[in-house]
Design a protein that fits this description.
InterPro entries: CbiX-like, Sirohydro_Cobaltochel/CbiX. The protein is of the alpha/beta class and 125 residues long. Helices cover 42% and strands 19% of the residues. It has helices at 22-34, 52-61, 78-94, 110-122; strands spanning 6-12, 38-44, 66-71, 99-102. Helix 1 (22-34) links the parallel strand 1 (6-12) and strand 2.
Length: 125
């Protein structure tokens, strides 16, 4: 039986300023370093490339059959409540053999919130 080829897609909003993507690119690189057997990519909702559908299509073309999308958003706003489910539905239709899962917003994870709280507390001097 063939081994499952997995990918992790960090999904961010996007912005007009190219420099906005730098922290997300660092996050992608740090994550990839810890997941050597998993393709780790960064995709954007709007204003920047690559977009999520193109990223997933490229992964499928590389033989990936399991994709987890991690929204790198602080909370469940309209983009995650409306746009991402529609994108995921379109991806499942376009790639019927793909196992696709969507994690919760990174900012809603208790561990992430604890790390952010620690940073805020340390910032008070």
């Amino acid at each position: 039986m063939a081994q499952t080829k997995k990918a992790l897609v960090l999904f961010a909003h996007g912005a007009r300023a190219a420099s906005w993507a730098a922290p997300f690119e660092r996050l992608r690189d740090l994550t990839a370093a810890r997941l050597p057997d998993c393709a780790v990519r960064l995709a954007f909702l709007e204003l920047m490339e690559p977009r999520l559908p193109e990223t997933v299509a490229a992964l499928v073309a590389e033989g990936v059959d399991e994709v987890t999308i991690v929204p790198v958003f602080l909370g469940q706003g309209g983009h995650l409540l409306r746009d991402l489910p529609l994108l995921a539905e379109g991806l499942r239709t376009a790639h019927p053999g793909l196992r696709l899962s969507v994690a919760g917003a990174v900012g809603e994870d208790p561990g992430v919130l604890a790390a952010m709280t620690d940073y805020c507390v340390r910032s008070t001097g």
